[in-house]
Amino acid sequence: MELGQCFEHAYKTRLLLHLVAATHLGYAVCYDFLYARLPQLAVELRLEAPIGGKLKYLTFLCGLLQFFYYLLALVYDVLRARRLRLLRDFLLASYVVPLALTVSLTFWTLCAIGRESIYPGLLDLIYPAWLNQTLHSFVVLYALLELCLTQHRYPPRTRGLAGLGLFMAAYLAWMHFIWLRTGIWVYPFLGALSATVRLLFLALIVGLSFVFYLLGERINAVLWPRSCGLRRWSSSE
After folding, report:
1. Is the pLDDT of residue 123 over 90?
2. For the chain, what is the domain count?
3. Torsional class of 107: left (φ above 0), alpha (ψ -120 to 50), beta (otherwise)
4. Could you give phi then psi for residue 203, rounded to 5 degrees?
5. What digits encode the pLDDT tens for the residues 97-107?
6. Residue 237 lies in a domain
7. In-domain check, residue 171
8. Is residue 157 part of a domain?
9. Domain ranges, residue 148
10. Looking at the record's lineage, which domain of life comes first (predicted)?
């Protein structure tokens, strides 16, 4: 009976986490999309590219993906469908954990180096502090809690890293496409870097995302050893 109560308590805890994360991130993403917008003058002054909208920002894409993940996890908690679990585990491994850590660490590191060149104080009038913290800090908190509270079967490393690599390559291609079309970098500070330094910086970001993938895999293996080894995730299970 005590074991049954323990499983029931764990289930309710996971359910609460997924409900809170989906609600919090869903509201943040909607607010960001609808209200946190630079005035049209920013486009006219070439401070923002006129194409792409919010979809040109990695932070927004990450927040959108995180919201989708926790919504999917919530649906799985209710339906317990095997295919949903396979998709849930793949999304967490390839995107949720590495992107949350990459976006957060990159943003706060660059802010510590030179906040005005990365995130000018004027933007606080457009992006409220709670929104900034949600998309740059809470995504990491939720991802780490998810690793601790929910058992996942990580995909084969080649498959997981391939998924992450394709996403990062697609985003870099999208960012450069916007630059080629408009002459404006999605992140203005990139324009102040030489081509070599810019290439090294972007390579570092991609490299960090791979490191964070491996970190998430390691944390999952330590916390949930039975989900690894012979019982690793596979499409045949």
Report:
1. no
2. 1
3. alpha
4. -65, -35
5. 999 999 999 99
6. no
7. yes
8. yes
9. 2-231
10. Eukaryota
